[in-house]
Every structure is written in structure tokens, then in C-alpha cells.
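Section 5.1 Outputs to date
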Amino acid sequence: MRLTASDRPGVAQPVPERDIPERSWGRIWLGALTLALVLTGAWEWHWRAFGVTPSYMNSNGEWAQQRRRIDNGEGNALVLIGSSRTLFDIQLPVWQRLTGERPIQLALEGTSALPVLEDLAADPKFTGRLLVGVTSSLFFTGFAYRADAIRDARRESPSQRISNWLSMHLFEPYVAFDDSDFALETVLARQPWPVRAGTHPRISVRKLSNSDADRNTHMWSKLVTDPAYRALARRIWSQQFTGPPPPGFETPAKASAIAQAQIERAVAAVRMLRARGVKVVFLRAPVIGPYYTFEERIAPRAKTWDVLLQRTGEPGIAFTDYPQLQGYEQPEWSHLSAPAARRFTAALVPIVEAALRSPAARGSPPVHRAGATVPRDAGDAGF
């Protein structure tokens, strides 16, 4: 028994000693390790049964890795920026097969292209060509969910680079559950807990894609093969269509003022790029169904896209103007399935290459080509 101070009144206290009982510590450690491996294996098995396969995380560190390529000798490359449609719908292997060049993918999901456009405009080492994806509901509102990737790339420490390297080489290619959507705290948070009266919690965006080491990304096949998961993805997008407008967008006048401010940001960035000889092409990737209706309502083409091209003086490719860029499978209205993305990229490459080669295209008004149609939810017939 260890004596306490009450057992020795008035006596200086010695250094406390605690006897460690004799135990089979080797067996205890082995048991703990076995339990950890079993639980980890069960968690991995659970998500693989759900349809998850190993994929790179598309983290800020992996974005920074691709961004550094420009400063490390690839400043004359073709660079892709934009939001998730640019990320999901343009397939780098197809582009490389058709042109011999594999673009640098710097698009960020849920994020306007403008922060990256401004970052590249301020970098004198970038002298290449730039394809700017324009998602109307993001570009003309200034919403930038992952803009911190640019800041993190500038401040990335050696330890962060090492951590990212270890993750990419030891975990991400082999472990399916290594995804923020399957973290235990995330899974617990989205359980059907009781909802406080008067509140209307929103459903967070779920996993939509898989990525390669160089951020070549495609839609997760579960959105095509699992009707319930596809319906969930549509329900999540629908929250935008029917909910209240975001702050600053309460009236058409306020929304228009914000859109014009974003266009002015683009004009200033393009002016800097053009001074270095950088060729810029804007792209509106396919969107269908209620999502297309929503975007046309909050950012009408005539007041946003057309003005952007006129003010910047750069060519633009809108999918509604090209029959060969329409009619692809889009399970949740906003992104192409993986097979459709490969076909779309093959159709897009010659259009982009022509726009980049033709100086006469600069400043020209948008072309409405014969046969162009309003996009429809054509993919539903195949489900």
C-alpha cells in the first residue's frame, strides 16, 4: 500500500512511488494491436462493401503539388482551372492521347475559378495557355469553398509536404476508407438524430468522385449504378434550388452587382495574363435539368457569360452552342459520368485547340451554332 500524506503528519513527503504490477505486457500489446487491426479491417470491409475503392484524396497538399509544377519548369503548360465540372468532366489521359500533352489540373470543386485565375495572373512564371471553367452559380457569385488551397500552397511547410507524400504513397492508393466522407465523426454527424424544432439542417455534399495522383478525376460509379445514392445527390443539389438566396443576393439588383464585380476581377486578371502572352479560353461545361434552370435563373447568360466574353475579349465555349458537347449522361444533373466524360473530352479538345490557335477569336461575340438545343435530362433514359 502506498502511504499518503495523512499517514505521515509532519513528515516531509518522499517522491511518490507507484508499484507496477507484474503483467504479461507483451501479450497485452499484441492483443491491443490485434484488436486495432480487426476494427480497422472491419471498417475497410464495410466501405468496400458499400462500393468504395481506394482513391487519392485531392487534398490541398495535392493541389499544391500540381501548382508547384508551374514554378518548377512547366510554366508554358496548358492549365485547367474552374470548379468541379472542369475537374470531373475533362479527362487528362484522353487529352494527352489526342494532343500529346497532359494538362495541369488546378480546378477546385465548389469554388469559383477567379481565385486561381488571379493567382496565376500574379505569377510571372506562368506563360502557357489557360482553360477557365465557368460554373455560373459559382463564378458569378464569387463562392469559393476551397480558396484556402491557394493560401496553403504558399505557406506549406516541409513537414506538411512530407505528410502529404507519406499519405499519397502509404495510404491513399491502398485504403478505401481514407476519405473525409467516411471519417467516423462525419458518419456519426449524418445519422438521423432528432432535429431541434424550428431548424432545417442541410445535407452536406457526399462523395462524388475518385482522383488519381495528378488530380485527374472522374465521377464515382455509384452515382450511375445506385439509384438511391443518385437520388440522394440530386436531393442535396435541390437544396440550392428551393432554399433562400445567399446573403447579398436577396434582390436581382444586388445579384447583378455581385456578378459584375466578379466579371471585373476576371477582366483585370486576363489583362495581366495577356500582357505576358498567355492565351485564355473560357468554358461552360454541360449542366442539365433543374440545375440548368437554377443557374439560368440566378445568372442569366445574357447578363453574365456574354458580358464576361465581351469585357475580357477572350473566346468562350458554351456547351449550348455546340451539339457535340450536349446529350451526355449526367446522373445528378451537374457532372458527367466517367464514360461520358471521356467522350466529352474527345469532343472538346479540337474546339479548345482551335480557339487557342485562332487570334481572330479574341473579342468575338459568342456563337450560337445551328442545332444547339436547351439541355435536357437525357441521361435518365439509360438508368
